[in-house]
Amino acid sequence: MVEDDTPVRNLISTTLASHDYQYITAATGEQAIRAASDHSPDIILLDLGLPDLDGVEVIRSVRSWSVTPIIVISARSEDTDKIEALDAGADDYLTKPFSVEELLARIRSTQRRLTYMKQSGPDKPSFNNGALKIDYAGKAVYVNGEQIHLTPIEYKLLDLLSHNVGKVLTYQFITKNVWGSSYDSDIASLRVFMAGLRKKLHGESSIQTHIGIGYCMVRAE
Q: 3-class DSSP state for residue 145?
């Protein structure tokens, strides 16, 4: 847990301890990077406004060698700040002030995604999420057992979201991975293709829109 504000750090520490989470703390970006390297934590809670490094720099540094989930906890509430952090590699973004209940919910959600990723493995031939099934080997998609015919772009979108289930993907990240670029016209096209994809999935609700930021496929309960 990376936080230089003592009252906030104490609040988060007390919350984690009272729910039996083991944790270590850091108050600077350099301390955070060293701690992440030395201890290999399961999850990193990261403030952006640190005294030595900007939190986005910490994200980029950690992402150069680790896929550890990073939940940003920051007073920066502008969409541009959220997009920058998520594009740098953050997995979630919680804005201060926050409730401890929401923080714990974000941690639990990240834990579920970690568990799913460990169970599925990188080479799993198919993906199941509620009524949705994706046969990666055959590039076939099913909803409630009925095969859905998608265009190549629609399939790429669904494939990308399913391989990042539980993670908010920004418009820029998606367009760069699907189209290879991220111009305004690509983002406009993304919205059109996403609307078409949702229609073909018969309103399958696991794909959530984060207005002004991007999309996320949530894990069905």
A: coil
